[in-house]
Design goal:
alpha/beta; eight-stranded parallel sheet; 37% helix
Length: 670
């Protein structure tokens, strides 16, 4: 199994036949450029290539009216003047004699991808399609969209495959009102959309795009709108929205399938969005979604009109789907004030419907920094001088950024293990390297002199393997690894690993120590290492780089700890290496350990070394190896609310740490 790429060259046939500055950006080059870049990076060749089929008219009827489908069928015989006249009846639409064929292929590609994933032919995939779909409604084309590709895919998954819980994540910069209208009263579909809104002044100028629009009837709480009220949102804002809104709700919803309306007009350089999120951010978002639904993620292309930004973002997403580590995010991770206002608003609107958003106490509804002005702004037209100026301003910065991305090669070995002590019951993915090497004996003995617990032969042998594996990660030869250590030497081995990592080039080392492991007393509190202990007796923040939290007792408490504390700290710290130590009496169930490892892999660019007890079960080592190779972790089981004690501990720590770590914030500072 692997990653599917669904495409058909006929989808490039439809193009604008008359002058229209608003519509000219939806061009065939959007697909050809993205496909060329996938080929240049060797990504298309690694995917299972599927040729898109046309959706049948019966399949189109899952979302669209027969009259609308018949109208579109009739466009095949129309001349240019008639097509132009018909196009004017809709908002931001153009028709071409090939539109019906192209749109049926775009819809069919999404259905094909869902079939491939749900039958187990592939793990995940991307449908590279045009025209896009998320604005299209039951009987109306809208915003370049003809048939609603993602809504049709969701209906198809329900009707053909019998799914009961589907998550749709729409990260296009425009609100996908067509998807919202289709499912707003359906509790089996959770629809999340962020979008440029500007207090209703940005297209499509809908009141129902705001945070307080949460669905209707039985579907209340299953529409989650996160409006961006300013342009310039970047990586920190997007990641914060996932950690503090989408993922808590998604884990509670527990989807069987994730559909992504993958619009890349929300990426840097795009004239429509005017946002600042860089292409590698979409690899992070994709990997954060892959921990849901057993990794069953189907992405369908929506918008994206800066060809270089679009194509690089598509490549980043496909790399993530293939299981490659995401490049680390560059620049400070500090959400904008306006983004925090939006996050605060949506959490307040959704808290009555989701237990996971109630666990940090009541959420105040913010007063927006500016009220919605009357009237609509002038649209930024592609042919206008403002459009050209905006594009020119980002071109140089984007070019430099993309050059940096190209210079980050993937390590030749994705995963290596030193686990000989765990015996024959250990089952590893086929591409995992079972490391036989060890650090030079003199070097190992020199490090071992720091601790009496490392004097025994068993501990010394294990330490040599840990150091060898660590060096491979730091040298860029290995992405991640797992090593076993004897329980009596666990704390000493971790201490040496921290010191070795810092002395061998790690600039920022995050250590997540689970179980009975104390922070080395003489470890410098100099900002180069962040120590986070889970399973301490009480919550404590001895400094911004020394944090302890009790291990939560419930599923909800554990998720809250990881999403609201561990990951925000990790993204704020931006480590180039993570040590995940599962020490004696760590108390984690295998699915919890796997989820923690899978999520820590994302902000660290895949550079994770997991240290496990030599007495651990082969099952634990096996599941850690699979998630560090990019596979999805197993389900945590039924969601259960955090205990009051766990909630109180988390709130205390956040209060202590928020002034230092801005990614912890879920509300705009007063």
């Amino acid at each position: 199994m692997g990653t599917a790429l669904v495409y058909h060259e006929d989808m490039t046939e439809a193009r604008l036949l008359w002058e229209d500055p608003e519509c000219e950006i939806e061009s065939p080059e959007r697909l050809t450029t993205a496909l060329e870049r996938l080929q240049q990076h060797g990504l298309e060749q690694r995917c299972l290539r599927l040729t898109a089929r046309e959706a049948s008219e019966a399949e189109l009827g899952l979302v669209h009216s027969p009259e609308y489908v018949a109208l579109l069928r009739g466009t095949q015989a129309l001349g240019t003047r008639e097509l132009q006249a018909l196009s004017r009846q809709y908002d931001a639409i153009y028709f071409h004699p090939s539109t019906f064929h192209c749109a049926r292929l775009a819809a069919g590609a999404g259905l094909q991808l869902v079939d491939a994933v749900l039958t187990g032919a592939v793990h995940n995939g991307l449908a590279l399609v045009r025209p896009p779909g998320h604005h299209s409604q039951r009987a109306a084309a809208n915003g370049f969209c003809v048939f609603n590709n993602v809504a049709l895919a969701a209906k198809h998954a329900q009707e053909k495959h019998g799914l009961h819980r589907i998550l749709i994540v729409d990260w296009d910069v425009h609100h996908g009102q067509g998807i919202q209208y289709t499912f707003e009263d359906d509790p089996s579909i959770l629809y999340f959309s962020w979008h440029r809104y500007e207090h209703g002044r940005f297209w499509p100028y809908l009141r129902e795009s705001n945070a307080d629009s949460v669905g209707q009837g039985q579907g209340r709480g299953f529409t989650v709108n996160l409006p961006w009220n300013q342009v310039g949102m970047g990586n920190a804002d997007y990641v914060a929205a996932f950690l503090h809104v989408l993922l808590p709700v998604a884990f509670e919803f527990d989807p069987e399938l994730v559909l992504v309306a993958a619009g890349f007009d929300s990426a840097i350089g795009d004239p429509e969005g005017q946002m600042q999120a860089t292409p590698e951010c979409f690899a992070h978002l994709t990997q954060l979604l892959q921990v849901l639904a057993g990794g069953r993620v189907c992405a369908v292309l929506e918008g994206g009109y800066h060809l270089e930004s679009l194509s690089q973002s598509v490549c980043m997403m496909v790399q993530a789907l293939l299981g490659d580590p995401a490049p680390r995010l560059l620049g400070p991770m500090v959400p904008h004030h306006s983004a925090l206002e939006s996050i605060q608003s949506v959490r307040a609107a959704q808290a009555p419907h989701w237990t996971s958003l109630q666990q940090e106490g009541p959420v105040p509804i913010p007063s927006p920094s500016n009220h919605s002005p009357e009237g609509k702004p002038s649209t930024l037209l592609p042919g206008g001088s403002e459009f050209k100026t905006a594009a020119a301003q980002t071109a140089a910065a984007l070019s430099s950024l993309l050059d940096q991305l190209c210079l980050q090669p993937t390590p030749p070995v994705r995963m290596a293990v030193a686990l000989t002590s765990l015996g024959a019951g250990l089952v590893l993915p086929p591409d995992v390297l079972c490391e036989k090497g060890s650090a030079p004996q003199e070097e190992t003995q020199a490090w071992a002199r720091l601790h009496e617990a490392l004097a025994k032969d068993e501990a010394l042998t294990a330490l040599g393997k840990v150091l060898y594996l660590l060096d491979g990660i730091l040298d860029g030869q290995v992405s991640s690894g797992i090593a076993a250590t004897p329980a009596p030497a666990a704390a000493a081995t971790l201490d040496v690993a921290i010191r070795r990592g810092l002395s061998q080039g790690a600039q920022r080392l995050l250590c997540v120590a689970v179980g009975q492991l104390d922070r080395p007393s003489d470890l410098a509190d100099d900002g180069r290492n962040l120590w986070l202990n889970i399973r301490s007796k009480e919550a404590a923040a001895l400094s911004m780089f020394h944090v302890s939290v009790p291990l939560p007792a419930t599923t909800g408490g554990f998720l809250n700890c990881v999403l609201a504390l561990v990951l925000p700290l990790a993204y704020g710290f931006q480590p180039d290496l993570v040590l995940l130590a599962l020490g004696p009496a760590h108390g984690l169930q295998d699915p919890q350990a796997a989820l923690l490892a899978a999520l820590l892999r994302v902000p660290a660019g895949g550079r994770v070394l997991a240290l496990v007890d030599a007495e651990s079960t082969p099952q634990l080592a096996g599941v850690l190896a699979r998630v560090l190779c990019g596979e999805a972790p197993p389900s945590l089981g039924p969601f259960s609310m955090a205990s009051p004690e766990d909630t109180q501990a988390l709130m205390y720590l956040r209060g202590q740490l928020e002034p230092h770590w801005k990614m912890l914030q879920v509300a705009a500072p007063v």
